[in-house]
Amino acid sequence: MLSSIWKPSEQLRGTESRALIYFVCGNPGLIGFYVDFLDALRNLLDTSQSATAYDIYGRNLLGFCDHEHEPFTPDNPPWDVDGQVDAIYQDVASRRVRIEDGSGSGSGNDGPYDFIILMGHSIGAYIAVEIFHRHMQDPGRAPHLRLRHGFLLFPTIASLALSQSGTRMNYMRSLPTMEAHFVTYAKALLSLFPRGTLHWIIQNVMGFSPRAADVTAEWLKSRDGVLQALHMGKSELDTIFEDKWDDELWEVSASAAELPAPRFFMFYGREDHWVANHVRDEFIERRRRAGEKGGRTSITVDEGNIQHAFCTKERK
To answer: Coiled-coil intervals in this record (predicted)?
Structure first.
């Protein structure tokens, strides 16, 4: 199973700075779902004219790939949302770029990026925003880290339980024995199907791309992947309530000379089963009102039909 994706910029001549785009997965937290998307992003950056060289990096969330952790036990439980935020924050802060010494020998030292852009999908958007928040609250934790922008795709950052899928999950949790034994039931059902059969069903019935079907089938047949996803899902429902962040996080103060670029760029689906429309619209209205005082968050709502799980479909 793929653990990470690393796509460094090859256009370094004439650039004035080096930046990292760090991608944070949704749930299930497998970077393999995003290969085509990050390939397209790499191609887009390579054909753009910019004074900044952008590297791209993304990795699995913790607990979703068996070979990356010890088997889960009562003393070694799956990761919850807070644990994922802390782990990804540490990983973002650890990223370094090779700084050449000018001798042409390839020697040099590792140094921090000039700045970092966090890009998150679904719960990955929440993780990205919370990393910004924690870094603003305690910049001394990683004083070298310069977080510049957040690109939030189909962000599940407020009142998750009010969404269509959140309501269904909470209903399932309320059924007798489900809270304690849902993973056991799920694994018993999955054990009836060989991996190849699961792949066929996921691709031909659910309409996933061949790559996404392969990633999904491997995850469903893994030792701990389903447990981690369900534990994470319950943690999301128990963690993500109303927007808890202050306006200071979302907006950048306007200067007298010019309006600065937004700190966050958000892309919502027109109809998203993980984001209730009224929650999305209320959030947008709050940001609109607050943005009148300074540089506002940039928010776009899809006018077409891009699905929340866009990364599972064929790239057109």
So the answer is: none
